[in-house]
Amino acid sequence: MRLTLKNSGTTMSNKAMLRNYINEIRQGNVSAEEALKKAITSAQSLNKKFHFFTTPTYDLAAKQAHDIQHMVQNHREPGTLAGVAVSVKDALCISGIESCAGSAILKGYKPLITATAVTKTINAGGCIIGKTAQDEFGFGGFSVNVGHEFPVPLNPHDTTRSCGGSSGGAACLTAAADFPHVAIAESTGGSIVNPAAFCGVVGLCPTYGRVSRFGLIDYANSLDKIGPVGKNVEDVALALSVMAGHDQNDATSSTLPVEDYAKHATANKIRVGVIKESFGEGSDEAVRENVRAAINKLADAGCKITEVTLPTTYTYGIPSYYLIAMSEASTNLSRYAGILYGASEPLAGGFRDYFSAVRTKHFGTEAKRRILLGTFARMTGWRDQYYTKALQVRQLIIKEYQHAFSTVDVLATPTMPFIAPKFSEIKDMTPLQNYMTDILTVGPNLAGLPHLSVPCAQAKGMPVGLLLTAPHFREDLLFHIGVMHEQA
Amino acid sequence: MPITKDTIRSVAKTCCLELTEQEVDQFMADFQSILDTFSKLNDTDTTNVPPAFHPLPIADVLREDIAKQGCTPEQALSLSKHTSKGYFVGPKTL
Amino acid sequence: MNKPDVIIGLEVHIQLKSRSKLFCPCPTTGDDEPNTRVCPTCLGHPGSKPLLNKAAVDAAVRLALALSSQINPVLNFSRKQYFYPDLAKNYQITQYEIPVGNHGNITLANGKRIDLMRLHIEEDPAALTHTSTTCLIDYNRSGIPLIELVTEPAMHSPDEAREFLNTLMTILGYLNIFNPDEGVMKADANVSIAARGYTRVEIKNILGFKEIERALTFEIARQRAHEVVRETRGWDAAAGQTYRMRAKEKEEDYGYIFEPDIPSVNISQEYLNSIRTTVPELPSAKAERWVQTLHIDPTDATIISTELALAERFERLAQHHSAILVARWLRRELLRVLNLTGKKVNDVAEQRLHELFDLLEKKTITDKIGQQLIEELAKKEFSPKQRVEEQNLGAIGDVEAIKHACAEEMEKNKQAVADYKAGEEKAFHYLFGQVMRAMKGKAKPDVIKQVLKNILEG
Question: A12-269 is classed in which CATH architecture?
Answer without folding.
Answer: Alpha-Beta Complex (3.90)
